[in-house]
Amino acid sequence: MNTTLAILVTFLALWIIVPVFLALTRLFGWYAMVQERTCRVYVLFGKVIGTLTEPGLHFLPAEIGVSAFIINFFGKCYVLDLRLDQEYRRSEPVNSEEGAPMGIGIWYEMWISDPVAYLFKNTDPRGSLRANVSNATVRCLSNMPLADMLQTRHTMSQTVRAEVSPQSQAWGYQLGSVYIRKVHFRDTQMIRQIEEKVVNRLRQVTAAIRQAGANQVSVIASSAEREASVEFAKAAAIRPSTLGAALREIAQEPDVANALFDILETQKLLASGARVTLLAAGRHTGVLGDVLAATGMSGAGRGSPPPVAST
Fold it and tell me: Which CATH architecture has domain 85-186?
């Protein structure tokens, strides 16, 4: 029985009595909880009586005095988010120095630096900051040379940030990093014209490269042909001298010379396609040879092959 009673008392204390007690003490302004990266601004009868920026548990009478006991009944508590926020503005219209319609995409960060100024100096600080960033972008980046606009985005980002920061601080809104993320052409017809020019330029460059390669190949080929012609001419010029020197060396050996000329003569006869009559060696070779030669010539005239004698 005692155990059941203890459990019941504990349950009532933990789940009913303690929460109700904390809610009442919070309602009558005894304490307040400030979450991480948040801020509480207390306003009583149109006057700011306290600001809590440090996260944790705060004893309100010590922070704002005896007004803490009536602040929740007759005053108001604003809870602001102090976390870093960011926004991206797409295609802000500007014109280059050459008159080209350009669009600039700008990204920036911001956070609340002065909660009181944020609440009461401007009814829409975020919208005002957005408008100021847009106006500063158009005012500071218009009439820039097109080449600088496409290449110096870091410098343009610093220019916009320097223009907007003093105004944003007066409203309690601190401007952080500013970066120009995109610069592009807004006119579709101009984009097509630029694409056509780029394509034509690429074709011209490609044609020039091909022509240069063909010219180089022609130069190499003509140089090779010229060198080959020179070498062939040199070879034709020194051929008689080389051949004469070789024959002179062969002529120094009569047997070798006779065998060489016999071989050459035989090769010439075989290559000429002439008819060859072979006669047996003997005493009457001269007369028999004349008769056979005459017979062969007459037979050749009638279309019949000449007789061939063998040894």
Answer: 2-Layer Sandwich (3.30)
